[in-house]
UniProtKB/TrEMBL annotation, chain A:
Localization per Swiss-Prot or TrEMBL: Cell membrane
Domain of life (superkingdom): Bacteria
Similarity section: Belongs to the cytochrome c oxidase subunit 3 family.
Membrane topology field: Multi-pass membrane protein
UniProt xrefs under InterPro entries: Cyt_c/ubiquinol_Oxase_su3, Cyt_c_oxidase-like_su3, Cyt_c_oxidase_su3-like_sf, Cyt_c_oxidase_su3_a-hlx, Ubiquinol_oxase_su3_dom
Top-level taxonomy: Bacteria, Bacillati, Bacillota, Bacilli, Bacillales
Source organism (scientific name): Aquibacillus rhizosphaerae
Keywords for the protein's UniProt record, in alphabetical order: Cell membrane, Membrane, Transmembrane, Transmembrane helix
Domain Heme-copper oxidase subunit III family profile: 1-205
First-listed, main subcellular location of the protein, grouped into a coarse class: membrane
Gene3D superfamilies: Cytochrome c oxidase, subunit III, four-helix bundle (1.20.120.80)
Record protein name field: Cytochrome (Ubi)quinol oxidase subunit III
PROSITE patterns reported for this sequence: COX3
Bilayer-spanning residue ranges: 28-49, 69-89, 101-119, 139-163, 184-204
TrEMBL record, chain B:
Membrane spanning stretches: 28-49, 69-94, 106-129, 154-180, 192-220, 243-263, 275-296, 308-333, 345-371, 383-405, 417-442, 462-483, 554-572, 578-596
Source organism of the structure: Aquibacillus rhizosphaerae
Keyword set includes Lyase: no
Known catalytic reactions: 4 Fe(II)-[cytochrome c] + O2 + 8 H(+)(in) = 4 Fe(III)-[cytochrome c] + 2 H2O + 4 H(+)(out)
Subcellular location: Cell membrane; Membrane
Known role: Cytochrome c oxidase is the component of the respiratory chain that catalyzes the reduction of oxygen to water. Subunits 1-3 form the functional core of the enzyme complex. CO I is the catalytic subunit of the enzyme. Electrons originating in cytochrome c are transferred via the copper A center of subunit 2 and heme A of subunit 1 to the bimetallic center formed by heme A3 and copper B.
Enzyme category, top tier: translocase
InterPro entries attached to this UniProt entry: Cyt_c_oxase-like_su1_dom, Cyt_c_oxase-like_su1_sf, Cyt_C_Oxase_1, Cyt_c_Oxase_su1_BS, Cyt_c_oxidase_su1_bac
Gene: ctaD
Lineage: Bacteria, Bacillati, Bacillota, Bacilli, Bacillales
Pathway note: Energy metabolism; oxidative phosphorylation
UniProt cross-references to Pfam families, sorted A to Z: COX1
Protein name as catalogued: Cytochrome c oxidase subunit 1
From TrEMBL, chain C:
Domain Cytochrome oxidase subunit II transmembrane region profile: 23-121
Reaction(s) catalysed (UniProt annotation): 4 Fe(II)-[cytochrome c] + O2 + 8 H(+)(in) = 4 Fe(III)-[cytochrome c] + 2 H2O + 4 H(+)(out)
Name assigned to this protein: Cytochrome c oxidase subunit 2
Cytochrome oxidase subunit II copper A binding domain mapped to chain residues: 124-236
Cofactor: Cu cation
Transmembrane segments: 46-69, 90-112
PANTHER family in the record: CYTOCHROME C OXIDASE SUBUNIT 2 (PTHR22888:SF10), CYTOCHROME C OXIDASE, SUBUNIT II (PTHR22888)
Length: 206, 618, 351
């Protein structure tokens, strides 16, 4: 049996993402990577908490933040996490088309989120004069939220690339792990946002 | 060092082979060469420091240059010498010890190396581009954020790039050890070196992101006008100290644990006994790794954290002495009742015990916060961490190299030269650093360009410098040994030491695919078990079949090179916005290579059964 | 075997010899010769921990030496295979429990001492001095007494003195080894520690946190005098006559130049200006710029080219370099600034 055949079995196994050694390695390695990412964001959160009141005479978090927009953004991202779960569900059933559709919805939701975030930053910078350089608080805010935004952007590019690359050839044991870890990454981004929503926005307004 | 195959292939082909290799054994050699080069460079910087301090009020180097030397010595030795040399050993040995044909992520493995190398080169480019970083290897803000020139920028970007490489290496070894162990190789049958590799990799995974964040913040402060560490903008410089040491303290254990692993294997092999208290040793390793994350603030006793924090971190730090003590006694009792053969590898290991015990003693003394108010930032600390890092890590690397050299290159390093290296280095080491404990308490802070004539510090410094020359001679003899062995050394078989673990069950150097058939592991020290039962080698766990191996690729090199270019762009865009083009080009190259990697299928290749039977799979 | 034991022994004696040769360091500088409360407390902890640790080291070395002598491979026994012991529960418990007990012996006094040295209960009733670390000099502000001075800190012997420390630029660390352990000066928050000199004397202080090229030249002194002399010094410093005319003509001209060109950065008297060191009692300083002898020639050289003495200092490039003649006059003026009879010599001679 050639390598191609191994990767394209007639019947997809139950967990296609972990059916090969490469898949298992990717799966485990990515979990470890997310462990490291957790430390990365923990460090950023710690820095933010230490500096959140260092507004240096500039606007404070109470003056800046409103919850309406952020709430919509939270809903968008939470929903996108759910749609990526649907995508993975269809992947396990070997229904490639449906998986692509749900991933497409995930990407759309993510793009909307990113658009709203850019709009939010634009408002702060142009209307409130609150920038990366106005105070230590500003630096910490844009760094923490910006790092998350950067992750969202990277996740979107990643999922789009995977969708485009595999659009014609469908699902196999070679790309199933790739789809799977991309969705893991997306969940992680979602979890981080929940913390940002709580720590930065909720605690910043109250 | 080059093998016969390399000679047959010609220089260009060999070079291409190494640029594109994803074979962990070749990557080990690359790490060895890279780390060895930076070790010599860091040593040269150390010699300049010691020559400057040979007499009071010396003017061998200027004050500013001295700060560059001490910064680069520390940074180079930790990030560019010790780490890669440890990675050389991990790459050379761990897959063999667990009976794997490869690592879990050969591509990432290669990427990790090239990132380290380009990061290191970027950092050292600063010497020729207006001056090296000069804020100490710890780069405390606000000195580091306010130093004029680009020195510290090179530090930030260089370490960011090489740090990313290290993180990948860590993940790679974690997954390799979890997923790729041979049949029967349970966790509690893994050689201690593999265990320490595992714990070290976990530490890398959880420690390096803190440095990543710290470096990003420093980069933003220096290059993009943020105010994290700038008190005038409401920032706080102590945040850097926390982030640096949350990374920095585990880093010490990242370095020392694999050395512990080396000594465990060496003691066991050359006293012909199984490791005493194996379970306790594993437990102690894990405990040291765990506690290593709880003690970072003992580097900050004088920062003003208050007596409560200082006391907590003091006690937590002292607690680490317990698992470390367990290890020392287990090693002693491994030797107890053994048939101890003393050769170069063993000399380094035996010398480690008293040297490291002294380092551990001073470690406990430093942990006592009220005493640390005197020790902190003096030559006492310098003495302490050199006792730990040289007496532990460097001795461990030398022991490991002597021990595994035949496995890596098929030749044993010359014993006479090995012993000369050992004695000059060992004597020089104690001569250099023992006296520094006293210099510190006599009133000599560390990082001092000059000390004054009449302060009673002259003799001690002179002795210390003399010792440094001995160490330099030792290092040069070792280099000579490597060259002479590669030219004249005789080939040895797969198992020159009467070894106990899996790596000795295969030829030296091992074939591309390591194991023709995966071995069946039946206990701790699997090869030893087979030997005591009268068999010559391991029992295979599978019939001979096709072996799937990854393809070589140039992409890791290209990605790292892209980041290298982008690094220059980030540094110089403050002077001239047109340098931003370098950022875009560099990042473009890197992301482009990532894109290619992502869309181009790479299924690897198979070595066919028929070729294996012929005896080569290349 | 003999060979390398011999080498170890030689190494040992060489180290001992070197320690004896250099003694315990210089009086009033070395942490081994404490003259202050903090230094005494720290040294006690150092000795307690050292004693415990030397005990551990000796135990390790006895086993180590025994093992190497007894179990080294003998001729003709290369193939001897020893018994493969897995471990020994009892032994392993012993070398886990005993170190824990030993650590408790160190930890308890450590915590007590750490809290003792951080005590601030009588801060309000004590002398408080604000310490500012600068690249590369120290400023001392006696708030309540309205005295400003630099480089030499005068304190009364036998009294607790609270130091409230900050930095004006990068991190520094305030360290007078024979008086007390060190404390960092941070730019964003004030750190407090107390010192108490047990004997009169002039004590060397050093900066212990890398702060730039002249980090090693940032020395200062604590001048501990009797409480009476300290009172006298305070009064003298409070009553400095800023209008006083120097005796010599040269110094008078120097004063004129100084007032025109230098006062922007260097204060005389209790002015809060502290861009550069306060020079009120410059003539009584122990050292010039922390490390050089206070001679007329050195002062002139400093004024003409401070970079040579302290690389990277903040004066270089920020003032109009006077002619050599003018510098001589400024030096004449500065060196006669001796407002008090209580000087570092007073502290040294009483001792």
């Amino acid at each position: 049996m050639s390598h191609e055949d191994i990767l394209n079995p007639k019947v997809m196994p139950e967990e296609p993402e972990k059916a090969t050694l490469e898949g298992k390695n990717k799966f485990l390695g990515f979990w470890f990577f997310l462990g490291g990412e957790t430390v990365l964001f923990a460090s950023l959160f710690g820095t933010y908490l230490a500096l959140k009141n260092s507004n240096n005479g500039g606007p404070t978090s109470e003056e800046l933040f409103g919850l309406e927009l952020v709430f919509i953004m939270t809903m968008l991202l939470l929903t996108s996490s759910l749609t990526s779960v649907y995508a993975m569900y269809h992947m396990k059933n070997n229904e490639f088309k449906k998986m692509q559709i749900w991933l497409g919805i995930t990407v759309l939701l993510g793009l909307t989120f990113l658009g709203l975030e850019i709009y939010e930053f634009y408002e702060y910078i142009v209307h409130d004069g609150f920038t990366f350089r106005s105070s230590a608080f500003g630096s910490a805010f844009y760094t923490l939220v910006g790092f998350h935004g950067g992750h969202v952007l990277f996740g979107l590019l990643w999922i789009i690339t995977l969708m485009a690359r595999n659009a014609k050839r469908g699902l196999n044991l070679y790309n199933a792990p790739k789809f799977y870890i991309a969705s893991l990454y997306w969940h992680f981004i979602d979890v981080v946002w929940v913390f940002i929503f709580t720590v930065v926005y909720l605690m910043g307004v109250i | 060092m080059s093998t016969t195959i390399a000679q047959n292939k010609g220089f260009g082909a060999t070079l291409w082979d190494y640029l594109t290799t994803v074979d962990h054994k070749k990557i080990a050699i690359l790490y060895l060469i890279g780390g060895g080069f930076f070790f010599l460079l860091g040593g040269l910087e150390a010699m300049a420091i010691r020559i400057q301090l040979i007499k009071p009020e010396n003017d061998f180097v200027s004050a500013g240059f001295y700060n560059e030397l001490l910064t680069m010595h520390g940074t180079t030795m930790i990030f560019l010498a010790a780490m890669p040399l440890i990675f050389a050993l991990l790459n050379a040995v761990v897959p063999l010890q667990i009976g794997a044909r490869d690592v879990a992520f050969p591509f990432l493995n290669s990427l990790g190396f090239w990132l380290f190398l380009f990061g290191g080169i970027l950092l050292n480019c600063s010497w020729f581009l207006g001056g090296a970083p000069d804020a100490g290897w710890t780069a405390y803000a606000p000195l580091s954020t306010t130093q004029p020139g680009h020195g510290v920028d090179f530090y930030v970007l260089g370490l960011q790039i090489s740090g990313a490489g290290t993180l990948m290496g860590g993940i790679n070894f974690l997954v390799t050890i979890v997923n790729m162990r041979a049949p029967g190789m349970t966790y509690m049958r893994m050689p201690l070196f593999t265990w320490t590799a595992f714990v070290t990799s976990a530490l890398i995974l959880f420690a390096f992101p803190a440095l990543t964040v710290g470096l990003f913040l420093m980069m933003f402060d220096r290059l993009f006008g943020s105010g994290f560490f700038d008190a005038n903008m409401g920032g706080n410089s102590v945040i850097w100290e926390h982030l640096f040491w949350i990374f920095g303290h585990p880093e010490v254990y990242i370095l020392i644990l694999p050395a512990f692993g080396v000594f465990s294997d060496v003691f066991s092999t050359f006293s012909k006994k199984r490791l005493f208290g194996y379970t306790a040793m594993v437990f102690a390793t894990v405990l040291i790794g765990f506690l290593g994350f709880m003690v970072w603030a003992h580097h900050m006793f004088t920062v003003g954290l208050g007596p409560a924090a200082n006391s907590i971190f003091a006690v937590a730090t002292m607690a680490i002495a317990v698992p470390t003590g367990i290890k020392i006694f287990n090693w002693l009792f491994t030797l107890w009742g053994g048939n101890i053969k003393i050769n170069s590898a063993m000399l380094w290991s035996l010398a480690f015990i008293p040297s490291f015990t002294i380092g551990g003693m001073t470690g406990v003394m430093l942990a006592a916060a009220a005493a640390d108010y005197q020790f902190h930032d003096t030559y006492f600390v310098v003495a302490h961490f050199h006792y730990v890092i040289v007496g532990g890590v460097v001795f461990g690397i030398f022991a490991g190299l002597h021990y595994w050299w035949p496995k890596m290159f098929g030749k044993i390093l010359d014993e006479t030269l090995g012993k000369i290296t050992f004695w000059t280095f060992f004597i020089g080491f104690h001569l250099t650093f023992f006296i520094q404990h006293f210099l510190g308490l006599m009133g000599m802070p560390r990082r001092y360009w000059v000390y004054l004539t009449d302060q009673g510090l002259n003799t001690g410094n002179l002795i210390s410098t003399i010792g440094a020359f001995f160490m330099a001679i030792g290092a040069i003899v070792f280099l000579y040994n490597v060259i002479i062995t590669s030219i004249k050394g005789e080939k040895v078989g797969g198992d020159p030491w009467d070894g106990r673990t899996l790596e000795w069950s295969i030829p030296s150097p091992p074939p591309h695919y390591n194991f023709k058939q995966l071995p069946l592991v039946r206990g701790l020290d699997p090869l030893w078990i087979e030997k005591t039962e009268g068999r010559k080698g391991m029992t295979p766990a599978e019939p001979v079949g096709d072996i799937h191996m990854p393809n070589p690729t140039i992409l890791p090199f290209v990605m790292s090179f892209g980041l290298f270019i982008a690094g220059f762009g980030f540094i110089y865009q403050v002077d001239d916005a047109s340098w931003l083009s370098a950022v875009f080009i560099g990042m473009g190259i890197c992301l482009g290579a990532m894109f290619v990697r992502s869309v181009k299928d790479d299924h690897g290749h198979h070595i066919h059964k028929e070729d294996l039977d012929k005896g080569d799979g290349l | 075997m003999k060979g390398w034991m011999g080498k170890v022994r030689a190494l040992f004696w060489l180290s001992i010899l070197s320690i004896v040769l250099s003694g315990c360091g210089k009086e009033n500088l070395s942490a081994f010769l404490p003259k202050g409360y903090g230094a005494q407390v720290s040294l006690d902890i150092i000795f307690i921990s050292l004693a415990v640790m030397v005990f551990v080291f000796i135990v390790v070395m006895i086993i180590y030496t025994f093992v190497l002598v007894k179990f080294r491979q003998k001729k003709g026994q290369e193939d001897f295979v020893p018994k493969q012991t897995e471990g020994n529960k009892a032994l392993e418990v012993v070398w886990t429990v005993i170190p824990i007990l030993l650590l408790i012996i160190i930890a308890v006094p450590t915590i007590a001492a750490t809290y003792d040295l951080a005590d601030e209960s009588d801060k309000a009733d004590s002398l408080n001095i604000s310490v500012t670390g600068n690249q590369y000099w120290w400023h001392f502000n006696y708030g309540e007494e309205e005295i400003q001075t630099s480089q030499d800190m005068y304190i009364p012997v036998g009294e607790k003195v609270y130091l409230n420390m900050m930095s004006s630029d990068v991190l520094h660390s305030f360290w007078v080894p024979s008086i007390s352990g060190k404390m960092d000066t941070n730019p964003e928050n004030e750190n407090t520690m107390y010192i108490e000199a047990l004997e009169e004397g002039v004590y060397w202080g050093k900066c212990a946190e890398l702060c730039g090229p002249s980090h090693s030249l940032m020395d200062f002194k604590i001048v501990a005098v009797s409480p009476e002399e300290y009172q006298q010094w305070v009064e003298d410093m409070q009553n400095v006559d800023l209008e006083a005319t120097p005796e010599t003509a040269s110094a008078q001209e120097g004063q004129a130049i100084f007032e025109n060109s230098c006062l922007g950065c260097h204060a005389i008297g209790s002015s809060p200006t502290a861009v550069g060191p306060n020079l009120t009692n410059f003539g009584d300083r122990t050292k010039l710029a922390g490390v050089e002898d206070l001679t007329h020639e050195n002062v002139v050289n400093w004024i003409l080219n401070p970079e040579k003495m302290k690389p990277g200092n903040k004066m270089t490039g920020n003032y109009t370099v006077p002619s050599e003649e003018e510098a001589e006059k400024i030096a004449d003026y500065l060196l006669q600034l001796k407002p008090s009879d209580v000087t570092p010599e007073t502290a040294s001679s009483n001792n």
